[in-house]
Amino acid sequence: MRLVGCQIDTECPEERLEAIHRLRESGAAALILNTCQRLEVFTCTEQPLPELAMSQQWEDAIAFERLARIAAGLESRILGELEILGQVRSAYKTFRERHQQDRCRLDRLFQDALALARKARRESGIDRNLTSLSALACRELLARVPNGEPIAVIGSGSIASSVTRYLGKRSRSPVRVTSRCPDRAMSLAMEVGGFGGGLAEMDHLLKGVVGIITATAAPHPVLYAEHLTEAQRPLYIVDLGVPPDTHESVRMIEQVDYTGLEAIEAKAQFNTEERRERAEIASRLIREGAQAWSRAR
After folding, report:
1. Mean pLDDT of the chain
2. Which pLDDT band, with edges at 50, 70 and 90, does 245 fall under?
3. In the chain, which ranges are continuous DSSP H helix?
4. Is the bond into 50 cis (omega within 30 degrees of 0)?
């Protein structure tokens, strides 16, 4: 069995969603990695994929190395980014859930790639002293809002989950969660003693909030000015969405303080030279690990 990885060439959010739908409809046993920076697919050559615009393709040891590099944060805008490992794990979990019957041929391979990424992180220290984007977003918000006042999280994916749990542990503010999956929003909110619901209930969930953190994978804004008529003022919003989850109309509202992803990322960019040196070590470990994996096969 030969491993193959490919990058889907699309910057249009709607086209990306269509590509994911076609991949899932094809029934191919594949790990689909959909993040703000990339849409990449890893499968075996025996699994036919639908006709999609692919900008890059890798095979065997190079594809294995590519997946491990992504999980180690070597392909991220912030070297060693912490969230990406969780996103790869989430993609792997979805793969296991959707392909119970034919996952065994790829299952071990994906586990090996994740294990190699963790080893590279641990031995290189690439993420040492690096604060996650979710933690930075929470700190940014908590520094501005009165402790104990209600806060809302929009989204229930990997980053939104990290945000919610951070807020639950480090603030006395009640947390409300809303996402397009009401059950996931409610389950996540219950972890921190809050309550949640679907996007259709957003007006109600945002009533009286003093702060909002958005972190969805939506291809378009989900937060509009009309959702905030009963939110408190001043209102602080931190938007981690790509593209932004917040409509431009929100940013024009008086006493709404908006912080986008780029501003949060800028806070994470420190010790750049040292991190580059650690990235070189991680790259070497992964390259050697991929070569050893290939020889063992």
Report:
1. 90
2. very high
3. 13-26, 60-71, 83-98, 104-124, 133-142, 158-170, 182-191, 202-205, 248-251, 261-268, 272-296
4. no
The answer to whether the beta carbons of residues 137 and 165 sit under 8 Å apart is: no
CA 263 to chain centre: 17
Rounded Cα distance between 145 and 148, Å, is: 9
| DSSP codes of every residue in 27-58 | T---EEEE-SS-EEEEEETTSPPP---EEEEE
Q: Which residues of the chain form CATH 3.40.50.720?
A: 133-268
Which pLDDT score is estimated for 111? 93
Number of neighbouring beta carbons within 10 Å of residue 74: 24
Phi, psi dihedral angles at 34 (to 5 degrees): -115, 105
- Give the span between the Cα atoms of 261 and 243, in whole angstroms: 10
CATH number of 3-128+274-296: 3.30.460.30
